[in-house]
C-alpha cells in the first residue's frame, strides 16, 4: 500500500504535464523510494491516479533497469564489473562482498537487509573505479577496508528503517558516498 504523501506526489506529477503518460516515470520513482519496488498493487494504484491502464505503467516499469518490479532488500548493492572497474580489481571486491553477505551469487540476505546484484554495467564513474552503487548512491575507489566500513554503517542505517527501504538521501550520508551523484 502506498502512502497518502506518495499518492499526492503522483497526482502533482499528473497535473504538471500536458500528457498523463509523462507522469509515469516520476510516479514510479516516488513509489520505489517509498516501498522499494513496484508491486502489482502499486502499479494498479498509479494507473488509477493517472487514469491509465495498468499495462501502460508496467511496460515503463519493466523497461528500465533502475526500476524494480520484484521485492528486494532495504539496500540494493550493485557492483560495476565493466572493463575499467575490472582492471582495478572489481572481481576481487565482488567476491569479498559476496563473502561478507554470505551469498553465492545475486540475491537477498537472510535478514532481508541487502539485495546484491553483481552484474551492473558501467555507471560512468570509471575514473574512480572500482565502484558500486547502493540505493542509487555511488561509492568509489573501493578497497576492502572501505567496504568493511561502508557495510558496517549500512547495517546500522538499515536498523533505523524497519518498515521499508532506506531512502537514498540517507545512504548518501554514509562514509565514502560521493556527493556528485546525489539527487
Ligand atoms: S566501468 Fe565501472 S563505472 Fe565505468
Biggest sheet descriptor:
5 strands, mixed
Per CATH, the superfamily of the largest domain is Glutaredoxin
Proportion of beta-strand residues: 5-15%
CATH class type of the largest domain: Alpha Beta
- The domain tally reads 2
User: Which ligands does the model contain, each kind named once?
Assistant: FE2/S2 (inorganic) cluster
- Could you tell me the mean pLDDT? 93
Any idea what the CATH architecture of the largest domain is?
Answer: 3-Layer(aba) Sandwich
Runs in which pLDDT lies below 50 for 5 or more consecutive residues are none
Q: Output the number of helix runs.
A: 8
* Secondary structure tally: strands: 5
- What would the principal axes of the Cα set say about the shape? elongated
C-alpha Rg, in Å?
A: 17 Å
Encode the helix/strand succession as letters: HHHHEHHEEEEHH
Describe the fold and architecture.
The protein is α+β, with helices and mostly antiparallel strands. 45% of the residues lie in helices and 11% in strands. It has helices at residues 4-16, 24-35, 40-50, 54-63, 83-87, 90-101, 144-159, 168-171; strands at 75-80, 107-108, 114-120, 132-134, 137-139. Helix 1 (4-16) runs antiparallel to helix 2 (24-35). The site of FE2/S2 (inorganic) cluster has 11 residues, from helix 5. Residues 80, 82, 84-85, 122-126, 129, 131 line the site of FE2/S2 (inorganic) cluster.
Could you give a short description of this structure?
The chain is an alpha+beta fold and 183 residues long. It has eight helices and five strands.
Amino acid at each position: 500500500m502506498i502512502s497518502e504523501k506518495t499518492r499526492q506526489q503522483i497526482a502533482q506529477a499528473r497535473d504538471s504535464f500536458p500528457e498523463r503518460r509523462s507522469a509515469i516515470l516520476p510516479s514510479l520513482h516516488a513509489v520505489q523510494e517509498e516501498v522499494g519496488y513496484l508491486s502489482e498493487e502499486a502499479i494498479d494504484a498509479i494507473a488509477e491516479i493517472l487514469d491509465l491502464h495498468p499495462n501502460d505503467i508496467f511496460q515503463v516499469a519493466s523497461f528500465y533497469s533502475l526500476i524494480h518490479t520484484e521485492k528486494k532488500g532495504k539496500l540494493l548493492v550493485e557492483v560495476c564489473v565493466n572493463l575499467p572497474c575490472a582492471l582495478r580489481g572489481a572481481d576481487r571486491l565482488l567476491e569479498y562482498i559476496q563473502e561478507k553477505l554470505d551469498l553465492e551469487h545475486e540475491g537477498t540476505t537472510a535478514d532481508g537487509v541487502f539485495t546484491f546484484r553483481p552484474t551492473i554495467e558501467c555507471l560512468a564513474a570509471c575514473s574512480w573505479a572500482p565502484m558500486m552503487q547502493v540505493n542509487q548512491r555511488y561509492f568509489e575507489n573501493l578497497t576492502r577496508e572501505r567496504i568493511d566500513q561502508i557495510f558496517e554503517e549500512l547495517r546500522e542505517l538499515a536498523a533505523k528503517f524497519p518498515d521499508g527501504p532506506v531512502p537514498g538521501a540517507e545512504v548518501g550520508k554514509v562514509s565514502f558516498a560521493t556527493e556528485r551523484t546525489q539527487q
